[in-house]
Write a structure and sequence with these properties.
The structure holds 2 protein chains of 2 kinds. Chain A is about 30% helix and about 20% strand. By secondary structure, chain A is of the alpha/beta class. Chain A has a single domain, classed as Peroxisomal Thiolase, Chain A, domain 1. In chain A, α2 runs parallel beside α5, α6 crosses α11 and α8 packs across α9. Chain B is of the alpha+beta class. Chain B has 8 helices and 8 strands. The chains are: A alpha/beta, B alpha+beta.
C-alpha cells in the first residue's frame, strides 16, 4: 500500500532546514568541523549543529530539557512542519495521528551530566531527576508534548537504523487503521557515550570522513533531527511524494561488524523492492549507509553489486553531515525524498580514490537528473538493516 | 477481526526460572529463589560475558519458540524495555565521568537497545526483522500493540519480549524497577501453526485506563517493573482462564483492549 509523504524536514550540520541542506549539498559544502564538543578532547571531526545548547524550550517543555530535546525542538521549527502538523491534527483529530520517533541514545547526554554530580546517597540531584528525560522514549514524549498529538506514541531504538524503521512502523499502523497518519522522525545528539564509545572501537577518524574512498579511516559522529508526515494516500490532497516500500532484516553475524558478504543488507533491499513492486533496475538513486568505516563501505558495495545495474546512481552524504546514528535514517530518507523534488542527486563528498575491493561504482560528483524512484539504506549495530523506497504519487 | 493467536510463552525472574515455574508458583505458592539464568542458546563460553538483560531476553524467547515448536529463524522480534540495559548505562556514565578513554568496547556495543535481538539473530542464524522499542511506563502495552499489528499486517509470527532489569540507585527516580522480570509472548496470525494457547482480539480504545492492581500471589517487587505490566494477561493465560478482558493504557489518552478466549492451561 502506497502512503503519501506530505511534509518533511531535516536539521543537521549540513543545514538547519531544507533550504540550507539543499544549498550545502549543491555547493558541496561540508558541515563537519574539528571536534570542539564540550568535555571531549578526542582528535576527530564532528557534525555539530551550531547553537543547540542555547536553544530555549517553551515553558511547558522545560521539564524535558536536554541537548537531544533542544535539537528536536530546533528541527520542529523548520519548513513549516508545526503548522502542517496542526492542520493535519485539526482535520483528522489529534488522536488519529501517531508519533513514531527513532533514536540511538535519546537524552543520554543529560544522564551523563547527572552522573557527574550524583548526590552522596547515589541518587540524581533533584534538579536533574526529570522523569521525561533519562530513558529511551524521551524523543517520543517530547515530540508528543511539543505538537499536541495524542495518537499512539513509541520510540524505536535499533542503533543506526532506528529512524528508518519508523517508516515501516508508520506504514503498518496506517494500513491497520489505528491511525490515519503519523509524524515520524529521529533525533540523536552529540554526547560523550557515543564519542568515547566509537573511540573505544577504533572506528572514529582523526580527519574529515571519506566515505567510499580507498583511504577512508573511519567515521565522524554527527547529530540531527528530522521529521516526515506520512498519511493515508487519500488524505494527501496535492502532495506528490510517496513511501512505496520498506524492507527490514537482521544480519545473523556480529554485534558491531556487518555480514562479510552483505547478506542482511541485500535481504533488506530485496524486501523493500518486493513490497514496492519495483525492479532494482528502476531505482535511480540510492542514498547509501556509507559511514566511511572500512568494513561497512566495502560490504555495502557487495550488496549493491548483487542487485543493481550500473544505471543506478549511489552515494553517501555522510561527508556533509557526519554519521548521525539514530537520526541517520530520517536525515538520509529526507535527502532521498528531496531528490525527487530538486533533481539534485548528491555525490559523495571527500571521495578521491576508488577502492579496488569495491564491487560497485559509487558516485563522487553531484548529478542533475529528474528521477522516479529513490532508495535509502540504513544499517545498525546488532546487524539491523532497513531499506526504504520513495517515489511519486500519480 | 484484529486477532492473534498466542502459541508460545516464556518467563524469567528471580522467583521463577521459566513459564512452567510461573504457572506452578501461581497455583501452589511455591517460588524459586534466584534460579540460574543459563540460556542454552548462548554457548557456555560466552554466557558469563553476556549481559543479564541479553540472557533474560534470549532465555524467554527460546522458551516461547520451544513451546510453540516454531523455528526461531521464521520469527520477527520485538524487544521492549523502557530503559534498556540500566547496568550498562550505569557503567558507561560512571566511566565517562572519570576515565572516558578507558570505556570497554564490548560494553559499548552491548549498550545499544537492540543488543538482545542482535544476539538472538546471531545465535539462531535468523535474518528475520527485529526491532527494539520504548514507550516509557507504557512500554509493555505499546510494544504488545506494535507486535500484534506486525503479526496481522505482515502475516508473520512475532515474538514480543517485555522486560526491565532492576534499577541502580542513580536511575530509580526515573525507573523504580526493584526486581528483574522478562516475559516473551510468541504470537501468530490465526490458524498459522495449529497449536495455540489462546486467541487475543485487540483494539485501541479512547481514554487511559489505570494499571491493574498487582496479583497478590506474585512478588510485590514486580509491581514497579514497567516490563511486568502485562502480568494480568500472563497470569490469566497461566491460570488457564477461558475468557477474560483487559484494558492497559498505551498513552495518557488511550488504552489497548484485549479479549482472551478459549485458553487452555499451558504449563506443559
Amino acid at each position: 500500500m502506497r502512503l503519501a509523504i506530505t511534509d518533511y524536514t531535516a536539521t543537521s550540520a549540513a543545514g538547519t532546514g531544507l533550504v540550507e541542506l539543499r544549498k550545502s549539498l549543491s555547493a558541496r559544502r561540508s558541515g563537519l568541523r574539528k571536534n570542539d564538543f564540550d568535555g571531549c578532547d578526542l582528535d576527530t571531526w564532528i557534525g555539530r549543529v551550531a547553537g543547540v545548547e542555547d536553544i530555549e524550550l517553551p515553558s511547558h517543555l522545560t521539564g524535558l530539557q536536554s541537548r537531544n530535546n533542544q535539537l528536536a525542538w530546533l528541527g520542529l521549527q523548520q519548513d513549516g512542519l508545526l503548522d502542517s502538523v496542526k492542520a493535519l491534527s485539526d482535520r483528522v483529530g489529534a488522536h488519529r495521528v501517531g508519533v513514531i520517533m527513532g533514536t540511538s541514545t535519546s537524552s543520554i547526554g543529560r544522564t551523563e551530566e547527572a552522573y557527574s554530580r550524583l548526590e552522596e546517597s547515589g541518587r540524581m540531584h533533584p534538579d536533574l531527576r526529570q522523569p521525561g528525560v533519562h530513558h529511551l522514549h524521551s524523543p517520543g514524549m517530547f515530540v508528543g508534548a511539543a505538537t499536541g498529538l495524542k495518537g499512539p506514541s513509541i520510540t524505536i531504538s535499533t542503533a543506526c537504523s532506528s529512524s528508518a524503521k519508523v517508516f515501516a512502523t508508520a506504514s503498518r499502523w496506517i494500513r491497520h487503521g489505528i491511525v490515519d497518519a503519523a509524524l515520524v522522525g529521529g533525533i540523536d545528539s552529540l554526547c560523550l557515550s557515543i564519542l568515547y564509545g566509537f573511540n573505544s572501537l577504533e572506528l572514529i577518524s582523526a580527519d574529515p570522513c571519506k566515505p567510499f574512498d580507498r583511504d577512508r579511516s573511519g567515521i565522524n559522529i554527527g547529530e540531527a533531527a528530522g521529521y516526515a508526515i506520512v498519511t493515508r494516500d487519500n488524505l494527501a490532497n496535492d502532495a506528490r511524494l510517496a513511501l512505496l516500500g520498506y524492507g527490514e532484516s537482521s544480519d545473523a553475524h556480529h554485534m558491531s561488524h556487518p555480514h562479510p558478504e552483505g547478506k542482511g543488507a541485500s535481504i533488506a533491499i530485496q524486501r523493500a523492492l518486493a513490497r514496492a513492486n519495483v525492479a532494482a533496475t528502476s531505482i535511480d538513486y540510492v542514498n547509501l549507509h556509507g559511514t566511511a568505516s572500512k568494513a561497512n563501505d566495502r560490504v555495502e558495495t557487495y550488496a549493491l553489486a548483487e542487485l543493481f545495474e550500473s544505471n543506478t546512481l549511489v552515494g553517501s552524504t555522510k561527508g556533509w553531515s557526519g554519521h548521525t546514528l539514530g537520526a541517520a535514517g530520517i536525515l538520509e530518507a529526507v535527502i532521498a525524498i528531496d531528490t525527487l523534488r530538486t533533481n539534485l542527486i548528491p555525490g559523495t563528498l571527500n571521495r578521491e580514490t576508488d577502492d579496488p575491493e569495491f564491487r560497485f561504482d559509487v558516485l563522487s560528483d553531484n548529478v542533475e537528473k529528474r528521477i522516479e524512484y529513490s532508495m535509502s539504506n540504513s544499517f545498525g549495530f546488532g546487524g539491523n538493516n532497513v531499506s526504504l523506497i520513495f517515489g511519486r504519487r500519480p | 477481526m484484529n486477532k492473534v493467536e498466542v502459541v508460545g510463552l516464556g518467563a524469567w525472574s528471580p522467583t521463577f526460572a521459566d513459564w512452567s515455574a510461573l504457572c506452578t508458583g501461581l497455583r501452589s505458592g511455591e517460588w524459586s529463589t534466584d534460579p540460574a539464568l543459563q540460556p542454552e542458546l548462548i554457548p557456555t563460553r560466552e554466557r558469563r560475558r553476556a549481559p543479564q538483560l541479553v540472557k533474560m531476553a534470549i532465555e524467554v524467547m527460546d522458551q516461547a519458540c520451544k513451546m510453540a515448536n516454531i523455528s526461531p529463524d521464521d520469527v520477527a522480534v520485538i524487544f521492549s524495555s523502557a530503559m534498556g540495559d540500566m547496568q550498562i548505562t550505569d557503567y558507561m556514565c560512571r566511566a565517562l565521568a572519570k576515565t572516558p578513554k578507558l570505556i570497554s568496547p564490548t560494553k559499548f556495543h552491548n549498550s545499544v537497545h537492540n543488543a538482545a535481538p542482535g544476539y538472538w539473530s546471531i545465535t539462531t542464524g535468523s535474518f528475520a526483522p527485529a526491532t527494539a522499542v520504548s514507550a516509557y511506563e507504557h512500554t509493555a502495552s505499546m510494544a504488545f500493540l506494535e507486535a500484534a499489528i506486525q503479526v496481522v499486517e505482515e502475516r508473520t509470527p512475532v515474538v514480543l519480549v517485555t522486560q526491565e532489569v532492576a534499577a541502580p540507585l542513580s536511575l530509580v527516580d526515573t525507573c523504580p524497577s526493584e526486581q528483574a522480570f522478562s516475559a516473551a509472548i510468541l504470537m501468530t496470525p490465526p490458524g498459522f501453526s495449529g497449536s495455540e494457547a489462546c486467541t487475543l482480539a485487540f483494539s485501541v480504545t479512547e481514554g487511559a485506563e489505570d494499571w491493574r492492581e498487582p496479583d497478590p500471589r506474585l512478588s510485590p517487587e514486580l509491581a514497579n517493573n514497567f516490563g511486568a505490566r502485562l502480568l494480568p494477561l500472563l497470569t490469566a493465560i497461566a491460570d488457564g482462564e477461558q475468557c477474560a478482558e483487559f484494558k492497559f493504557p498505551i498513552t495518557e489518552f488511550a488504552s489497548l483492549s484485549l479479549a482472551l478466549s478459549s485458553g487452555g492451561a499451558t504449563s506443559a
